[in-house]
Every structure is written in structure tokens, then in C-alpha cells.
């Protein structure tokens, strides 16, 4: 059997590739496949996921895809595709095809056929349970995705990985014989049979005659949707622009700073201490900052597409990025005040205290700027404030501006163009060039987000300089 020859992989790209081999084989069998009826419901062409844009072995000669690929340079789409390890997954996909898939599939299955199967798996398959693993599920994969979805899918993941039983089975016994020595249908008579189903559950009332939408994930950004599913939503609230910690350090290291940047270990130590302090709670009152929802993740990621060093769709800076930038600025002020060439361990407590003072002054200044005041009076918004905290805040505002400006200068095919000029380019792209339009729309969204963040922090900077 083909299934016995495919290297098993429980999750990730390996699981996608294994399933792609099976799907490619079934597609090639056509009417002879037991899944022929289901296979006819699948798109006949390669799903235009961004991963395959510009790939001639997938889409052949495709000027639209090639241009789109050029436009996603420096965007979150590119970061998403390269993943946590910053590697191009196409290298692994092509390698898998030539070293494994090509030897298992019929000779008529070229890499283009395999990539079509992969595009279907990427855009439709999902994890069912510990037995079935990543699977293509007929009917369940026919629903489109939106944030405010009508339904979601539920499966009992914790089943026996050897036979798929949700109820007690022979593999639960410590003295259970190998699978080949005892039938798989053994079940305790006291345990009722549980239906082996994947249930579609309604979240809310569904109006008659309306399209029923599913969710592919509660926090899918447009970058992720384009990378792995081939489409984007209008105004996706899950969009972010992120940085690896090493990228932030490299950008700031190019500045004429009078001090070395904090090491990753020093930053994380101060971050942990500050997050457990009362001062960190004040950050929740800032309109310029937000605390990313980690979705139950055991550890924060400081690199890759899930980095916590980011700006969200409301142009708010994550508290994790704010802490890093503030440590940089605060470290400078501490050194100037104490005349130290290097910070000693005891300075950690002083840094945490100064971070608390800075966020308190920042929130107070934000509230003052929001209030309607008598223009004739022109009150001083920083009167009575902590001078050192204000100096640090001013430097943070400048660092945010620099960080956003450097990122803007790296986004898209023509980063030297203004956002308005990029918009004109977008308007000139034919409707038939869907991939290019999607790519440029992503560039415009990211630039707009970063420019809005810049504008907010420049307002803070101007108030401090005034």
C-alpha cells in the first residue's frame, strides 16, 4: 500500500507533504479512486497560494505571479513564508518531491501535479485527531473563512493513535498484544460506542439563504491567509507588522547610540521583572500600546511570524517592543546620570522602576493630549513631570519613528515610492492580475499601518519637544 511507503509525519510541513503524496496519487487515479466524487469538487487548477507565486515549476509562465512575488519583498507575507527558522519552504518541498514523492507516484505525476496537490492540502486540510492526523475532510473543506464566522469544526483529538478509538480499546491495557495479534475492534462492553465524526457547530444564528462561513483559525492575518490559502480579507483586524529581536537590534545598532544595545538575556530578564510589576499594568491604559494575546503559548516568540515584537492593525506598539526600546533609552539615561561605562546587575531594579515611571508619564501625557483644552491657554502637558522619564520617552518616540521608517524602506518592489504613488501603481494594475493586486494591497496595508504608528509617536515627540 502507498500509505505504508510514505514517511510518517505527525504535523507541520512534513505532514502536509505526506498528505500531498496521497492526494496526488488519488487525483491521478481519476475515476478509479474511491474518492473520485469528492475529488471532482476540488479546484482543477493550482490554488494560487503566495508560496507558489513566481514558481515556474508550479504555475509555469505566469507574469502575474512573478510580479506579485517581487512585490511581497519585505512584507509580512515573506516573513510568514520563511517561518520561525527563516528558511524558504520551497527548498524542502522540491527536495521532498525529488527524493521521496517522485519514487512513490506514477511517472505521469510531475512536480507540477505534486504542487497542485500541495496547494490543495495547504488551503484545505486540517488536523482531525491523533489517529487521522492532518486530513482532507469532504464537505468540511467547502466553507470559506471570515473572522466573524457562523460555524466551526469540532473533533475529539484525544483518541487512540493506533486504532482511532475514542472509547476504551485494547491499546489501553498495559498487557495489550501487538496490533497484528489481536483484532482492532475490541472494546469494553461497559463503554458505549462513540461516533467517529467531525462535527460542524453553529456559533450563532444563520440567516436563511446566506453563505455559511467557517474559520481557518481565530487569529489568521492576511499575510498568513495569502501565504497558505491564496486569499485576503478586507480590513483584517489580525494584521500585524513584526520584527525579529535581531532585526530591531541591527536597525538600532545603525544609529549613533552612545551605548551598546542590551543583550537578549538582559532584555528578557528586565522584561520578566517589569511584566510582574505594578507598573506594567499601567501600560494597558495607553492608547499607543497593546498586549498581544499569546493564545495559550507557553513561551513568547521573539522571531518569525509569531513574534511579539510588533505593531498591530490599530497601529499600536506591543508592550514587548516598547520595553526593548525603552530599555535602550533608559540605559542611556542611567549611564549619563551615573557616569557608568557598563551597567551592573543592581541596575536591573532601577531599570524596572524607570520603566514604570516612563509608562506613567506617557499615559498621563496621552490623556492630556486627548483632552479638549482652551487653545489660548496652551497649558504645558509636561508640567510637574519626572524629567528623566520624559527624556527617556522622547528617545523612545524617536526610536519608534526610526524603526517604522526603516521597515517602510524595505517593503515592496519599489520601496522608494510614497504610499500615494504605490496606490497609483495599484490602480493601474488590471483586475485580471489578481495576485499582483493582492500583493500590492498588502504593501499598502503594511505601509499605512506603520505610517499611522509613526504619526502617533511623532505627536508624542512634538509635545515633549514643545
TrEMBL record:
<dbReference type="GO" id="GO:0005634">
    <property type="term" value="C:nucleus"/>
</dbReference>
<dbReference type="GO" id="GO:0016279">
    <property type="term" value="F:protein-lysine N-methyltransferase activity"/>
</dbReference>
<dbReference type="InterPro" id="IPR050600">
    <property type="entry name" value="SETD3_SETD6_MTase"/>
</dbReference>
<dbReference type="InterPro" id="IPR046341">
    <property type="entry name" value="SET_dom_sf"/>
</dbReference>
<protein>
    <recommendedName>
        <fullName>SET domain-containing protein</fullName>
    </recommendedName>
</protein>
Amino acid at each position: 500500500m502507498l500509505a505504508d511507503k510514505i514517511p510518517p509525519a505527525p504535523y507541520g510541513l512534513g505532514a502536509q507533504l505526506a498528505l500531498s503524496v496521497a492526494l496526488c496519487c488519488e487525483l491521478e487515479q481519476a475515476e478509479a479512486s474511491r474518492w473520485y466524487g469528492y475529488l471532482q469538487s476540488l479546484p482543477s487548477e493550482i490554488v494560487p497560494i503566495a508560496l507558489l507565486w513566481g514558481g515556474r515549476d508550479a504555475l509555469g509562465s505566469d507574469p502575474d505571479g512573478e510580479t506579485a512575488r517581487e512585490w511581497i519583498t519585505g512584507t509580512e507575507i515573506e516573513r510568514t513564508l520563511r517561518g520561525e527558522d527563516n528558511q524558504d519552504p520551497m527548498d524542502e518541498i522540491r527536495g521532498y518531491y525529488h527524493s521521496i514523492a517522485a519514487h512513490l507516484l506514477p511517472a505521469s505525476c510531475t512536480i507540477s501535479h505534486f504542487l497542485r496537490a500541495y496547494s490543495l492540502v495547504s488551503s484545505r486540510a486540517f488536523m482531525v485527531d491523533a489517529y487521522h492526523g492532518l486530513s482532507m475532510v469532504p464537505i468540511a473543506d467547502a466553507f470559506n473563512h471570515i473572522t466573524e464566522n457562523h460555524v466551526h469544526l469540532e473533533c475529539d483529538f484525544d483518541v487512540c493513535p493506533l486504532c482511532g478509538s475514542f472509547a476504551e480499546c485494547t491499546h489501553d491495557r498495559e498487557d495489550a498484544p501487538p496490533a497484528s495479534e489481536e483484532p482492532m475492534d475490541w472494546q469494553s462492553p461497559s463503554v458505549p460506542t462513540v461516533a467517529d465524526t467531525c462535527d460542524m457547530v453553529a456559533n450563532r444564528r444563520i440567516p436563511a439563504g446566506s453563505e455559511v462561513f467557517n474559520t481557518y483559525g481565530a487569529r489568521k492575518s492576511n499575510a498568513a491567509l495569502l501565504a497558505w490559502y491564496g486569499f485576503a480579507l478586507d480590513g483584517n483586524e489580525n494584521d500585524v507588522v513584526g520584527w525579529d529581536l535581531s532585526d530591531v537590534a541591527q536597525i538600532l545598532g545603525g544609529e549613533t547610540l552612545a551605548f551598546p544595545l542590551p543583550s537578549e538575556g538582559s532584555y528578557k530578564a528586565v522584561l520578566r521583572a517589569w511584566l510582574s510589576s505594578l507598573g506594567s499594568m499601567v501600560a494597558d491604559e495607553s492608547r499607543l500600546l497593546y498586549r498581544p494575546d499569546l493564545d495559550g503559548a507557553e513561551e513568547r516568540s521573539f522571531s518569525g511570524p509569531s513574534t511579539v515584537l510588533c505593531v498591530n492593525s490599530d497601529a499600536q506598539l506591543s508592550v514587548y517592543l516598547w520595553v526593548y526600546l525603552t530599555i535602550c533609552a533608559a540605559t542611556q539615561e542611567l549611564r549619563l546620570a551615573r557616569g557608568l561605562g557598563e551597567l551592573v546587575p543592581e541596575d536591573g531594579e532601577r531599570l524596572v522602576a524607570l520603566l514604570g515611571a516612563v509608562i506613567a508619564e506617557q499615559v498621563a501625557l496621552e490623556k492630556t493630549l486627548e483632552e479638549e483644552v482652551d487653545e489660548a491657554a496652551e497649558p504645558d502637558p509636561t508640567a510637574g513631570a519626572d524629567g528623566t522619564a520624559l527624556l527617556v520617552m522622547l528617545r523612545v518616540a524617536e526610536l519608534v519613528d526610526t524603526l517604522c521608517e526603516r521597515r517602510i524602506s524595505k517593503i515592496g518592489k519599489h520601496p522608494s515610492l510614497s504610499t500615494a504613488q504605490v496606490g497609483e501603481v495599484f490602480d493601474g494594475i488590471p483586475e485580471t492580475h489578481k495576485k499582483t493586486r493582492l500583493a500590492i494591497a498588502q504593501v499598502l496595508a503594511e505601509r499605512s499601518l506603520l505610517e499611522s504608528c509613526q504619526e502617533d509617536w511623532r505627536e508624542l515627540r512634538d509635545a515633549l519637544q514643545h
